[in-house]
From TrEMBL, chain A:
This is Translation initiation factor eIF2B subunit epsilon. One of its GO terms (biological process) is T cell receptor signaling pathway. Component of the translation initiation factor 2B (eIF2B) complex which is a heterodecamer of two sets of five different subunits: alpha, beta, gamma, delta and epsilon. Subunits alpha, beta and delta comprise a regulatory subcomplex and subunits epsilon and gamma comprise a catalytic subcomplex. Within the complex, the hexameric regulatory complex resides at the center, with the two heterodimeric catalytic subcomplexes bound on opposite sides. Residues 527-711 form the W2 domain. The keyword Thylakoid does not apply. Residues 1-29, 437-464, 481-530 are annotated as: Disordered. Belongs to the eIF-2B gamma/epsilon subunits family. It comes from the Eukaryota. Residues 441-451 have a biased composition (Acidic residues). It comes from Meleagris gallopavo (Wild turkey). SUPFAM superfamilies: ARM repeat (SSF48371), Nucleotide-diphospho-sugar transferases (SSF53448). Residues 455-464 have a biased composition (Basic and acidic residues). InterPro entries: ARM-type_fold (IPR016024), eIF-2B_epsilon_N (IPR035543), eIF2B_epsilon (IPR051956), LbH_EIF2B3/5 (IPR056764), NTP_transferase_dom (IPR005835), Nucleotide-diphossugar_trans (IPR029044), W2_domain (IPR003307), W2_eIF2B_epsilon (IPR044123). The lineage of its organism: Eukaryota, Metazoa, Chordata, Craniata, Vertebrata.
From TrEMBL, chain B:
Acts as a component of the translation initiation factor 2B (eIF2B) complex, which catalyzes the exchange of GDP for GTP on eukaryotic initiation factor 2 (eIF2) gamma subunit. Its guanine nucleotide exchange factor activity is repressed when bound to eIF2 complex phosphorylated on the alpha subunit, thereby limiting the amount of methionyl-initiator methionine tRNA available to the ribosome and consequently global translation is repressed. Belongs to the eIF-2B alpha/beta/delta subunits family. GO terms for biological process: animal organ development; central nervous system development. Pfam families: IF-2B. The gene is EIF2B2. Component of the translation initiation factor 2B (eIF2B) complex which is a heterodecamer of two sets of five different subunits: alpha, beta, gamma, delta and epsilon. Subunits alpha, beta and delta comprise a regulatory subcomplex and subunits epsilon and gamma comprise a catalytic subcomplex. Within the complex, the hexameric regulatory complex resides at the center, with the two heterodimeric catalytic subcomplexes bound on opposite sides. Keywords: Cytoplasm, Initiation factor, Protein biosynthesis. This is Translation initiation factor eIF2B subunit beta. The keyword Ribosomal protein does not apply. It is found in: Cytoplasm, Cytosol. SUPFAM superfamilies: NagB/RpiA/CoA transferase-like (SSF100950). It comes from Meleagris gallopavo (Wild turkey). One of its GO terms (molecular function) is translation initiation factor activity. The keyword Mitochondrion does not apply.
Length: 725, 341
């Protein structure tokens, strides 16, 4: 233990530690590493190998994460594994992390029952594994960050304000469009620039406009920064409270749930989240194959220095490389044929043999691969033991362990050949082809709600082994086609899941659609605020009335709600009247069927009108209100030609219910001609026999009205006439 | 052991900042001393194997940190000497054999297999002496400053070197002169150098690297530090030094290199690859640039190779030497069998 302490000081990792010798030594820094992604994004690749062990530049991802943790001064790491935990454990036990000289003690916690990050943290709490602040990472983070500064800040904050700040999230500054910025993970953050407190956190995938609550800018914080130039490193410094909070809120599944929940309940629980932004150091999280490609190329281009291949930080004999110009890395015993060119950014693992006249760039080649003559590799990621025959062309594809590509095969971008697949000879795989030895339907059988990488039995697949489709994999091929890009939208979407942004696990897509729904409204509002406020208001009123109808809410309460809406959207009384009439008239159409005929329409409308009479009475007081209501009714019937026959009945009902006064109706008739003509002119397409008929009828009505004193009778008559017709 | 792992971790540059050569040298020595004191070995040959394997591990971790290898070689030489003394060999024969002796001796090589109980203490004692010698290197170099810097001279330097800083400060105590510092982009250590010098009331000017050639005609002397002196008298120095040296050659300005002896490495520049050190391109083109980074290759080399013919004089802790004399110094410091670890 003493030796470890000195080692740490020598490593300089505890720069802060030296400055406070009197205080009691801080507890060793701990980390929780979640070596499972709890989704199937990397299927079918992760069927053979857990995601944490996928090789990045020939080194397993989890090694990068552990190296990052060790370099940053972590002394005890809990590795939580679920899917293929035995393999992860075996890998780590062979690695330098489990040697006794390792400054970072690695402990395993495995369980088949983990379904999410939430489960893991609840387990952390249940077993009370952490004693003080800890670092939370997933097993697919590549970073050369030194979190000691962020950690100091975090501790200081917790000292100043007792346990208010529970988490510090670490972000890397990077402008939008950067290839290492994962579209899925794009976020918009509002922060208090003085204290680095996170005020608002939102994923932006699929959103065109973002909505921020007004309260953000109205409270006492002086400077609020809204940032979209941040890359989430998926590294967070958590206090032990985080684990407790996960226990308290059993519905928190992901870190996002946690952040969102905490921000929403900030005032109630009094917990805050802070952030730390780094500009110089590197940190990225591999969530799909596009990110895999991006981060791999960043490693080769030395962005993650000192975690570059020739550093051999895993201390593995097979992993020693030399680095030469143009970022060419060569392992031991690599042979390169006559005329072959390694252009730039190439990593070649130990024992690989490359034939003559090959051209290789931007590629990673694993150990003990055999590559034939005249092969072109651009952006290819070959894992260990891959065989490539002559005259093969591969672009931006991933080829897993011991796969074989026969003569004259062409792989278009974004192809994936998983373990031991054979393709060819003489075949071209179209863009986005995924071939695996596991039949694809196998997945559907055990399709399980939680979309985690849970058990798929190998034996099972062997039993129902079917023949391979020669058209897909070539005459000597072995493997099943998973998803081909055959212009089918569905397939397109699935392809994206492995490579690109569109894929979402169930819960995520749900929450995202929620968000995008929410964004629709401000969308239109921003375009032209005045007009669209009314539209939004109209929708809201409709919603309110629907609810009122379903739940039988009394009219007084409805009035109250509508009033508050009115103020919320700043609606004038005139507009209010129009909207209300329109909504109520449209109500039967919305509720039942858009193609009602006028008879049914009226019968559906009548009870509603009767119910909501107090509503109208509340708003229709002055004569101008009456007129406005009438205009709205008129407009509605002009828009719905097929229903125009029922206008008379509707008017009559309004009159009978004493909503509209006789004088006003008569007044309206006198105004009618001009306004209606104006409308006719504006909407040329409305000049149909129907509408002409409508105007005629209204004229008849008017004449009748003039002739008779008893309005009531007239309307009844008119209604009868309309029905007769 | 854990200490060795931590040390390797640090020289890799994973630590918070780049280590100084002098610290690296001292740490290497203390680490080796620890291995000698606590390691399991019976006789000198076994100890040398132990030191060699440890040395290989450490040098492989970061080939550009030549100081580590140099100190390992120094320790091996110390063991040879101490063994020789105990073995009853004269000081004379310890020196490198002449060609005639080599021919007549008939391939008699030592096997270092006789165990001596006092060897451990003797070697540790000798290493302690080495450590003391290390302490004084910078001062020894600085002491020679007055012989080289005269009044009202214009001195040019590049980047930041602790040795050069001490050298110039020492001269400034007696003489008045002007210093021009090339900033040494992209890390711009030159800025720090200028700040430190101006605090000592030395008239200091910082300029961009591009101005080196233009300003050179006004300069009387170029004084620089280096990372490594190679066996042929060439330098591995901070990038930008080659430009400076070529400009100095063009204007026939003397180029003086201040470097302690522990930077002298018995390696030749044909092992090109091992001296490369490319760090993250962040300083050249920041990560925040966005889209363009996927389409460009950005390199950020740390070191330059400066051929020996561009160098006028080396000033080390044991005095001034011409590049052509380096081979001799080398045979004094290291045993030829240890050139290759």
């Amino acid at each position: 233990m003493a030796a470890r302490g000195t080692a740490k000081r020598a490593a300089g990792a505890g720069a802060a530690r030296g400055s406070e010798p009197q205080e009691e030594p801080p507890p060793p820094l701990q980390a929780v590493l979640v070596a499972d992604s709890f989704n199937r994004r990397f299927f079918p690749i992760s069927k053979d190998r857990p995601r944490a062990l996928l090789p990045m530049a020939n080194v397993a991802m989890i090694d990068y994460t552990l190296e990052f943790l060790t370099a940053t001064g972590v002394e005890e790491t809990f590795v939580f594994c679920c899917w293929k935990s035995a393999e992860i454990k075996e890998h780590l036990q062979r690695s330098k992390w489990c040697r006794h000289t390792s400054p970072n003690t690695v402990r395993f916690v495995t369980s088949e029952l983990y379904r999410s990050l939430g489960d893991v943290l609840r387990d952390v709490d249940a077993k009370s594994l952490v004693r003080s602040d800890f670092i939370l990472v997933t097993g697919d983070v590549v970073s050369n960050l030194n979190v000691s500064r962020a950690l100091e800040e975090h501790k200081l904050r917790r000292k100043m304000e007792k346990n208010v700040s529970v988490m510090t999230m670490i972000f890397k500054e990077s402008s939008p469009g950067h290839h290492a910025r994962c579209k899925e993970d794009d976020i918009v953050i509002a922060m208090d620039s003085a204290t680095n407190r996170v005020l608002h956190y939102q994923r932006t995938q699929g959103l065109k406009r973002f909505r921020f609550p007004m309260s953000l800018f109205q409270n006492s914080i002086e400077n609020v920064e809204v940032r979209h130039d941040l890359l989430d490193c998926h590294i967070s410094i958590c206090s032990p409270q985080v684990a407790e909070l996960f226990t308290d809120n059993f519905d928190y599944q992901t870190r996002d749930d946690f952040v969102r929940g905490l921000l929403v309940n900030e005032e109630i629980l009094g917990n805050q989240i802070h952030m730390h932004v780094t500009t110089e150091e590197y940190g990225a999280h591999i969530c799909n194959l596009l990110m895999y490609e991006a981060v791999c190329s960043d490693i080769i281009r030395r962005w993650v220095y000192p975690l570059t291949p020739e550093m051999n930080f895993t201390d593995d004999k097979n992993q020693s490389y030399t680095h030469s110009k143009h970022n060419i890395y060569r392992g031991v015993d690599v042979s390169l044929g006559h005329g072959s060119m390694l252009k730039e950014n190439v990593l070649i693992g130990q024992g690989t043999v490359i034939g003559s006249n090959c051209s290789i760039m931007n590629s990673v080649i694993g150990q003990n691969c055999r590559i034939g003559n005249e092969v072109t590799l651009d952006g290819a990621f070959l894992w260990d033991g891959v065989h490539i025959a002559d005259n093969v062309q591969i672009q931006h594809s991933v080829i897993c362990d011991e796969a074989e590509v026969k003569e004259k095969v062409k792989l278009k971008p974004h192809c994936v050949l998983s373990s031991q697949v054979v393709v060819g000879p003489d075949i071209t795989l179209s863009e986005g082809t995924v071939i695996s030895l596991h039949p694809p339907d196998e997945e559907e059988e055990d399709d399980d709600q939680f979309s985690d990488d849970s058990g798929v039995n190998k034996e099972e697949s062997k039993v129902k082994l079917k023949g391979y489709n020669k058209k897909d994999v070539g005459s000597e091929g072995r493997g099943y086609l998973w998803k081909a890009d055959d212009k089918n939208e569905d397939d397109e979407e699935q392809r994206q899941s492995l490579w690109g942004p569109a894929m979402l696990s169930e819960e995520e897509s749900e929450s995202d659609s929620d968000l995008s729904m929410g964004s629709e409204e401000p969308d239109s509002r921003a375009a032209s605020p005045q007009l669209d406020d009314i539209k939004v208001f109209q929708n809201e009123v409709l919603g309110t009335l629907q609810r009122g109808e379903e739940e039988n809410i009394s009219c007084d309460n409805l009035v109250l709600e509508i009033n508050s809406l009115k103020y919320a959207y700043n609606i004038s009384l005139n507009e209010m009247m129009q909207v209300l009439s329109k909504v109520i008239l449209e109500f039967p159409l919305q509720q039942l069927d858009a193609n009602l005929d006028s008879q049914n329409y009226f019968s559906a409308l009548l009870p509603l009108l009767k119910n909501w009479t107090p509503l109208f009475k509340n708003y229709i007081k002055r004569s101008s209100d009456h007129l406005n209501a009438l205009f709205a009714i008129e407009e509605f019937f002009l828009e719905h030609d097929s229903l125009c026959t029922s206008i008379a009945k509707v008017l009559m009902t309004f009159y009978q219910l004493e909503i509209l006064e006789e004088d006003v109706i008569l007044n309206w008739f006198s105004l009618r001609d001009t306004s209606d003509k104006g409308k006719q002119l504006r909407k040329n397409q409305r000049v149909s026999p129907r509408s002409v008929e409508f105007i005629v009828r209204v004229c008849v009505l008017q004449q009748l009205l003039e002739g008779t004193a008893e309005f009531n009778a007239t309307v009844t008559f008119c209604g009868a006439a309309a029905v007769a017709q | 052991s854990a200490t060795a792992a931590a040390f390797i971790h640090e020289i890799r540059g994973s630590g918070p900042k780049r280590p100084r050569s002098e610290d690296t040298a001292r740490q290497t020595l203390s680490l080796l001393r620890k291995i000698i004191a606590h390691g399991r070995w019976g006789w000198a040959g076994e100890l040398m194997d132990l030191i060699r394997t440890e040395g290989q591990r450490m040098t492989a971790a970061q080939p550009s940190e030549t100081t580590v290898g140099n100190m390992v070689r120094r320790v091996l030489k110390v063991i040879r000497e101490e063994y020789g003394r105990l073995h009853g060999r004269s000081e004379e024969s310890d020196q490198q054999d002449s060609l005639h002796k080599l021919l007549t001796s008939g391939g008699l090589s030592e096997d270092f297999s006789t165990p001596y109980p006092s060897l451990r203490a003797n070697v540790i004692e000798a290493i302690n002496e080495l450590l003391i010698e290390l302490e004084g290197t910078t001062d020894n170099i600085a002491m020679q400053a007055l012989e080289h810097i005269h009044s009202n001279e214009v001195i040019m330097t590049i980047g930041y070197s602790r040795t050069v800083e001490a050298f110039l400060k020492e001269a400034a105590r007696k003489r008045k002169f002007q210093v021009i510092v090339a900033e040494c982009a992209p890390f711009c250590q030159g800025h720090e150098m200028a700040v430190r010098l101006s605090k000592e009331n030395i008239e200091t000017t910082v300029m961009s690297d591009a101005a080196i050639f233009a300003v050179m005609s006004r300069v009387n002397k170029v004084i620089i530090g280096t990372k490594t002196i190679l066996a042929n008298g060439a330098l591995i120095a901070v990038s930008g030094t080659h430009t400076l040296a070529l400009a100095a050659k063009h204007h026939s300005t003397p180029l003086i290199v201040c470097a302690p002896m522990f930077k002298l490495s018995p390696q030749f520049p044909n092992e090109e690859d091992s001296f490369h050190k490319f760090v993250s391109p962040q300083e050249v083109l920041p990560f925040t640039e966005g889209e363009i980074l996927a389409k460009t290759n950005v390199h950020c080399p740390v070191f330059d190779y400066v051929p020996p013919e561009l160098i006028t004089l080396f000033i080390s802790n044991i005095g001034g030497n011409a590049p052509s004399y380096i081979y001799r110094l080398m045979s004094e410091l290291y045993h030829p069998d240890d050139y290759e670890l």
